[in-house]
Amino acid sequence: MLVLDSEMSIIPPSIFPHKAHTAWLDCDSCHPEIFNIKKKTTKFFSMSYILRGEFCGVCHLNVAFPMDDCRRCHPGIREG
């Protein structure tokens, strides 16, 4: 499991369940093209890139659960 800090201090970190993803996908589904840490670095793991269809957005804007429930990735968000 990876914990990724949010861009905004009021948003809690996102939790990436790597094990859950590898239960459905082969490593080469994401690596090295979508998540190439050496080429893209981690500084681009941001919602603006994700919502443009990069990183998590490659699947979560098209084939996986939609990105309209913030708590699926940011479980620390309180109900408002």
Give the arrangement of secondary structure elements.
Layout lengths: L1 E3 L9 E3 L1 H7 L12 H4 L6 H5 L5 H4 L20
Antiparallel strand pairs: 1-2
Structural description of this entry:
- This protein is α+β, with helices and mostly antiparallel strands and 80 residues long.
- The protein has a single domain (2-72), classed as Cytochrome C3 (Alpha-Beta Complex), CATH 3.90.10.10.
- The chain is 25% helix and 8% strand.
- The protein is built from 4 helices and 2 strands.
- The chain has helices spanning 18-24, 37-40, 47-51, 57-60; strands at residues 2-4, 14-16.
- The longest helix is centred in the first third of the chain and has 7 residues, at 18-24.
- The radius of gyration is 13 Å and the shape is globular.
- The model has no long low-confidence stretch (mean pLDDT 87).
Q: Total helix count?
A: 4
Biggest β-sheet description: 2 strands, antiparallel
Helix fraction by DSSP (H/I, runs of at least 4): 25-40%
Poorly predicted runs of 5 or more residues: none
Mean pLDDT: 87
Q: Compute the number of structural domains.
A: 1
Percent of sequence in beta strands: 5-15%
Task: Write the CATH fold name.
Answer: Cytochrome C3
Number of beta-strand segments: 2
Superfamily at the CATH H level? Cytochrome C3
Spatial arrangement of strands, main beta sheet: 1-2
CATH architectural arrangement: Alpha-Beta Complex
Q: In the CATH hierarchy, what is the class?
A: Alpha Beta
- Can you tell me the overall shape? globular
Output the structural class. Answer: alpha+beta
What is the CA–CA distance across the termini? 27 Å
Topology as H/E string? EEHHHH
Rg from Cα: 13 Å
